[in-house]
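Final report, Chapter 2: Outcomes

The project's central promise was a pipeline that accepts a single protein chain and returns its three-dimensional structure in a standardized token representation, suitable for archiving and comparison. That pipeline is now operational. To close this chapter, we reproduce one record exactly as it appears in the project archive, with the input sequence first and the structure output second.
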Amino acid sequence: YPKGVIFGKEWESHIQKSKVTEYNERTSDNKKELDALLMTRTNERTADDIP
């Protein structure tokens, strides 16, 4: 029975780890897109501001 509990906890943490990894990957992808958007906007704004 204790083995089952340990296995359950290990399995749980494994699922959580993979979810966290998945979340981090998705977040970093979104961050890259956001950064790219911000850079583009900044460049456009700078170009517009130059008389």
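Archive annotation: The two ends are 76 Å apart (CA to CA).
This record, like all others produced under the grant, will remain available to the consortium after the project formally closes.
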